[in-house]
Amino acid sequence: MSRRTVLVVDDEVKMQRILELTLADLGHHVLRAGGGREALAIIDAESVDLVITDLRMPDVDGLTLLKTLHEQGRALPTIVLTAHGTVETAVEAMKYGAIDYILRPFEVETVELAVTRALGVSRVERENRYLRREIEQGWGGFVGASAPMQRLYHLIQQASPTGAACLVVGETGTGKELVARAVHRASGRTGLFVPINCAAIPASILESELFGHTRGAFTGAHAERIGKFELADGGTLFLDEITEMPAELQAKLLRVLQERSIERLGSNRPIEIDLRVVAATNRDPQAAVAEGRLRKDLYYRLDVLRLDLPPLRDRREDIAPLARHFLTRLAGAQGRPVPTLSTEAEHKLLAYDWPGNVREVENVMARALVLSTGPDIEPGLLEEISVSARGTLAPRPAPGATELALVPQVEALERDLIARAVAAADDNKARAARLLDISERSLWYKLKKYGLS
Fold it and tell me: Could you tell me which CATH class the domain 395-453 is placed in?
């Protein structure tokens, strides 16, 4: 168990000292308070992981301290100390969030066991909340037996047990997070897999998301928050779109990788962490370094094990199995019979280059399933992937325009490309703009112009 901060609240200095020595032997940082009022002030100023409090104190007693924390919505695990005659009061304290009580006088081993159990319960509850969110979001496994994917599976098996940092490189929609999850599962690490998209979170919030913060660290920080680094302690932190992380945060990330410790915003207490970092990008990382998007020293720290994820156009034999996989999963979720992919529809899928990769396949199959009324998926249900003989997008003539009318043809092609980029980016406009190599402001203008907003 990593080093934690424990607040001891007791009006007897001797008892404070006994508990301080016991907790220090367990490797924890100890804060001391002579009563409930002082304890609340410390909790306001410091990041506290566990409270051990006496119930009988002259100013603000332990029960009032618990009630105050409960009313303020602070979920701090608390152990109460009580004499034999006040067990009933201890039971009442547990109604306000206390998770254990220790009878006085006590053996040192009793305190050690209670503290270890309390911190363990706190961590399990935190992980369970996180896992429930993960289960609600859901995620699928790999589909594909092509030679490029077989090579990738072999690399994952080689890379996973080492514990070294990994850099996953691949186009948008290829499944970079699935690769990171596979690395985590095969690594044997018992902690959580914690993903965070560096492009989806504003720079002003990203630092707090990663490092966490103490109460009052900045305007709006009404409660203490654990960051993704701490949440991934013992597990894997997945940093998607690492080249979009602000330069100043890249410097702090580099320090975390070197020091293996962090400090929450608003605190100067280092917290030791043991995690594996897997980063991902849809850019050429060396080009990103040359452009100043990625620090060179951070790149070398992350690119210990490189995992290149092939685009779907380079593994066409996986397209039909992926389409069938999504049809099966989506139909099952809707309680419908699974339709068959006709030979003509399969040929149409294979002729397309899939700029949105696997994510685009899922979107196309979802639309085809909604529109289908028979037992088969026919080519007519795939009209959104009209292709030329070379597998590139074919412009659709605008109503009433001849095939040689330039402006409507160009506008039709532009509208088609924008729609595909938005679909490939899961409706994330910033990412769609980057796919199209235009500004986000220009994208919003064109979305309104073509009625796509």
Answer: mainly alpha
Neighbours of 83 (CB within 10 A): 14
Task: Specify the fold of 147-310.
Answer: Rossmann fold (3.40.50)
Distance of CA 211 to the CA centre of its chain: 13
> What is the Cα–Cα distance from 443 to 422, expressed in whole angstroms?
10
Three-class secondary structure of residue 11 per DSSP = coil
Q: Residue 279 class from Cβ within 10 Å (0-12 exposed, 13-18 middle, 19+ buried)?
A: buried
> If residue 452 lies in a helix (H) or strand (E), which one and from where to where?
none
Report yes or no: 37 and 64 within 8 Å, Cβ to Cβ.
no
Give the per-residue SS3 of 183-248.
HHHHHCCCCCEEEEECCCCCHHHHHHHHHEECCCCCCCCCCCEECHHHHCCCCEEEEECHHHCCHH
pLDDT for 140 equals 36
Instruction: Tell me how many degrees the CA angle 151-156-161 measures, rounded to the nearest 5.
Output: 145
Among residues of the chain, what percentage have pLDDT more than 70? 88
Cα gap 7→66, rounded to integer Å: 13
- Domain range summary for the chain, segments of one domain joined by +: 5-134, 147-310, 312-388, 395-453
Phi, psi of 308 (to 5 degrees): -90, 125
What is the per-residue pLDDT across 285-328, written as a single tens digit (0 to 9) for each?
Answer: 999 999 999 999 999 999 999 999 999 999 999 999 999 989 98
Q: What is the CATH number of domain 5-134?
A: 3.40.50.2300
pLDDT tens figures, 269-289:
889 999 999 999 999 999 999
* The residue count for the chain: 453
- At the top level of CATH, the class of 312-388 is mainly alpha
How buried is 25 (Cβ within 10 angstroms: 0-12 exposed, 13-18 middle, 19+ buried)? exposed
Written as one letter, the residue type at 153 is: Y
Asked if 5-134 and 147-310 have one fold, the answer is yes
Using DSSP bridges, classify how beta strands 236-240 and 50-54 pair: parallel, antiparallel or unpaired: unpaired
Residues 358/175, Cβ–Cβ less than 8 Å: yes
